Amino acid sequence: MGNRLNPDDLPVADGRVYHLDLAPEELARHVIVVGDPDRVPVLAEAFLATREVDRFHRGFRTITGVTAETGQRVSFVTSGIGAPSTEIVLNELAALNEVDFTTMTRREQWQPLTLVRLGTSGGLNPATPVGTLVLTDYVVGLDNTALYYDIPLPDEACALLEERVRSIMTGAELPGARFAGRIAPYAARSDRGLLASLTAAAGTLGLPWIRGLTISSAGFFAEQGRGVARVGTTHVNLLDALEHLASPWPGFELQNMEMEAGFFLHFLGGLGYRAAAVCVVINQRTSGVFMADYRRQVLDGARLILRAFKECETV
Ligand SMILES: O=P(O)(O)O[C@H]1O[C@H](CO)[C@@H](O)[C@H]1O
Ligand SMILES: O=c1cc[nH]c(=O)[nH]1
């Protein structure tokens, strides 16, 4: 029992993990993770033929069931907003998959989970219309939550991206800003096989979609170039600066900005799970257009992911 987990390290009450209020057998091996808890019942209503679990705790709604279209068991899980919240959820999902809750020890064997983040995002590419589904190829995270997890660089493209974004961020800093030089961009990528399945499903369904580069910010306002508050910001014209990122590399077109894909792909890639991100472009940061009703596009995104899950199952 040397590797028994301390109840304070992994809090479990009534056999269910603390924040998600979920037991190991209640989690499916294919998971769609959404930011907004209200999106969970919408997806369940649209896609599940049967429901076996519906839980809501600490703002995290989870529904598990079998889909009508593919007959696959799937969980819809909430990440909440931002990397810190996502860090809690993904650690608990991994524990549900890898820990025996009766002995509180790590299982010797477990199957990797397959997870896709389905979210909304701000469009950074003027050529990509609002309503498009962005399949994240690579992501650069600007939060510091991921920096607590020492995961090797996935490839050379990630190394290049980290360097480029670091240099762009530094160049956009206001001279003398207190936190100048403190932001450390990190890059991650979607699982190649899962991304290929998503790309194939998107082509089959005939939806507006594009593959590209995503920026994951640590916040929604100053972090995404929104100077709303009455305090100064560390960077000037951050969005203008980031827009210059894509140009040197065909295939690395910058597409969108959101708040979870960076940690999601970094952490899950480190665990060896299959993970990807699909986000609807709901506004155009460069022109200021905003689409408040994106329910149909989110449902399209979920349909696409469920198709890809089914294809992956046979690979
Ligand atoms: O729609 P979700 O999945 O929440 O994603 C986006 O929307 C939130 C900001 O409004 C952030 O969580 C961002 O990543
Ligand atoms: O602009 C946007 C829209 C959605 N989500 C974000 O994080 N930013």
From TrEMBL:
Looking at its record, which EC class is this enzyme?
A: transferase
Q: Which GO terms describe its cellular component?
A: cytosol
Q: Name one GO biological process term.
A: purine nucleoside catabolic process
**Entries under Pfam families matching the protein:** PNP_UDP_1 (PF01048)
Q: Its Enzyme Commission number?
A: 2.4.2.3
Q: Which GO terms describe its molecular function?
A: purine-nucleoside phosphorylase activity; uridine phosphorylase activity
Query: What reaction does this catalyse?
Result: uridine + phosphate = alpha-D-ribose 1-phosphate + uracil
Q: What positions does the domain Nucleoside phosphorylase occupy?
A: 30-307
Q: Which domain of life is it from?
A: Bacteria
Database matches in InterPro entries: Nucleoside_phosphorylase_d, Nucleoside_phosphorylase_sf
**Quick one: signal sequence residues?**
none
The record's annotation in PANTHER family points to: FI09636P-RELATED (PTHR43691:SF11), URIDINE PHOSPHORYLASE (PTHR43691)
Protein name in the entry: Uridine phosphorylase
* Species of the source: Geobacter soli
